[in-house]
Amino acid sequence: MTQIFFYHNAANRIAKTAALIGKTCAQKKALLVYAPDTEIAAALDRQLWGQPPTSFVPHVAADSPLAAETPVLIASTLESVAQDERLFNLSNTVPPGFSRFTSLIEVVGQGEEERADGRQRARFYKDRGYAVRYVDCTGRN
């Protein structure tokens, strides 16, 4: 069953996602980022390029010719992506076919709408029997 992690109260959702991606990549683990909103995908791309050279995270769009050689893929759709280990969700909805992934990582910011969407997704997962683990990005828990 898919392991689900909610990182909530992120002061900057994109920066927190990039930091988590960096940690995952440092562990030599491949991952996929679901970002159907082109502005969010572009913001994440810029954030990843802005990392210091010693912590650069190789990443490309999922439809890039270099996708098979790159550990971090950013996808606007999940239908034709073969990777099924780790999925970072940067959409405001439940990603289609999320259950095929070993783990799903949700990063939720501090805005009211974003928090409400996150609560709705968490409820969706729980209602279907998934254990949801929460991590407060402010360090309060």
Observed structural traits:
141 residues, alpha/beta, Rossmann fold, 7-stranded parallel sheet, 3 helices, globular
Query: How many independent structural domains?
Result: 1
- Beta content comes to 15-25%
Q: Radius of gyration, rounded?
A: 14 Å
Main beta-sheet strand count, sense and barrel state:
7 strands, parallel
Task: Output the CATH class name.
Answer: Alpha Beta
Low-pLDDT segments: none
Return the CATH topology.
Rossmann fold
Average pLDDT, rounded to a whole number, is 93
CATH architecture: 3-Layer(aba) Sandwich
**Which class do the helix and strand fractions yield?**
alpha/beta
Helix content: 25-40%
The strand count comes to 7
Strand order of the largest sheet: 3-4-2-5-6-1-7
Q: Please, how many helices?
A: 3
In N-to-C order, the SSE pattern is: EHEHEEEEHE
Annotated CATH homologous superfamily? DNA polymerase III subunit chi
The coarse overall form would be: globular
How far apart, in Å, are the first and last alpha carbons?
25 Å
